[in-house]
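step 3/5: co-fold with zinc ion
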Amino acid sequence: MRTPSNLHIVCVALYYLLGDFMDVVNVEIGDVVKLKKAHPCGANEWEVAKLGMDVGLTCLGCGRKVRLLRYDFDRRFRGFLRRYRDKQE
Ligand SMILES: [Zn+2]
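step 4/5: write tokens
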């Protein structure tokens, strides 16, 4: 049986099996990142609020919070705007 949800599970499983060989974004809490698509409010600056199986992001344009699956985040990631570490110095 092939349904979209089964396919999705296979993709997630493959992602974690191949994870060691793939580029996973080395992101940390407090970093400000740019994504492939801007938020509907027009801003494309996201502060990383939570890391784990999914990534919690706060839109710096309107303050709204979203959550992305880790692999969606890695696919949509388009670069760092500020690193949390730089702010400390
Ligand atoms: Zn926004």
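step 5/5: annotate
The first strand starts at residue 32 and ends at 35.
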